[in-house]
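Morning!

This is the sequence you dropped in the shared folder:
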Amino acid sequence: MYRFIIRYFALVLLLSSCKDTPEQIPSYIRIEPFVVNAQGNASWHKITDGWLYVNGEYLGAYTLPAEVPVLAEGPCDIIVFPGVKENGIATSPNIYPNLTRWDANDLTLTPAQTTVVQPSTTYDQRTVFPFGIGRGDFDGGSNIVIENRDDDPDNGFSITSDSAFFGKCILMQVDTAHPLLDIATEKIINIPVTGSPEVWVEMHYKCDVPYFMYIAYPNGGGESIRAVYQFNTSANWNKIYINLTETLLDVQTPQFRLYFRASLNKDGTGKYPQLRGAVRIDNIRIAHL
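The structure's back. Tokens below.
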């Protein structure tokens, strides 16, 4: 009997508390795609997500544009961080640390109404570009130095305007007579290898044959290469953000080169299923804070 009375009064208190607390009506924030105040504007970048904070509380990462319900009203502090697909993987969204966040102080939210925000971003003024901004675009007088690294003297890369993303790009071509082409950039030095800040590579690419990116780094008296990423074919120009941080932590070297390999591979019968291939690379940037 005693237990029954306790349960009865607990139920009464619960029901009365539910009646005294009406369901809160959410406000809505519609986040438009980021405006990018940097070379090429948004067309040169691939900011896919917005990481939303309201009054200091993290509410999630959303593919843009997005409309988000928020249990807040009145003047609110809104922060949206620009997000990318790390290493081009849809299931690996990440805040891109080299671009600035967008802030709005005392933005008024109204229950049942939608407030539209247009976030903007640019490169953080602390961002370091070890190649120098613009040299990886291949459009000016001072471009990244590229050299052949394979054993085929009859095949090489070119810097061309043919089907470039903008201006000029690197073109790597392979065929059955010349099935392998390796190139490497000039040496990059003084790169942080502590894990913080993160080190990223940005680039545009277009290819009808898969190709690989490595880093080439000093090892004893020679040079070793470490695989970083395999690019699948892309009929259209694509932008990718590759996080080099874990690789650099592993090899513990403050200097390296980017190393690219295009190749045709034989099938199980010893024949080439594809007779030729082309890889185009443009707007290479290494960046860290």
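Headline: Residues 1-18 have pLDDT under 50 and may be disordered.

More detail when I'm at my desk.
O.
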